[in-house]
Amino acid sequence: IEKKLASCSRHRFHYIPPNTPENFWEVGFPSTQTCVDRGYIKEDLDPCPLPKRRQPYNAMFSPKGKEQKTKILRKFQKMPE
């Protein structure tokens, strides 16, 4: 094949194109298992650990204050206009 290419092109000796990658000419989407087999998808069995805060959150509002607000709102909703 290389002899035939060299004989039909004058500039073939200046630049020889690289071979196409494996599975380049396949049309369509490969299945998930095929992607895993080819190394396109890498599965991590260990999930990433969640980052921990250095300092805990400060409690800005107490639950007691929340209860009082809900009682007041209920009173306003029950009032007739």
From TrEMBL:
Pfam families, per the entry: SAE2
Keyword field: DNA damage, Nucleus
Domain DNA endonuclease activator Ctp1 C-terminal residue range list: 6-33
Biological-process GO terms, alphabetical: DNA repair
Record's subcellular location: Nucleus
One GO term describing the cellular component: nucleus
Domain of life: Eukaryota
Protein name according to UniProt: DNA endonuclease activator Ctp1 C-terminal domain-containing protein
InterPro entries in the cross-refs: Ctp1_C, RBBP8-like
Source species of the chain: Monodelphis domestica (Gray short-tailed opossum)
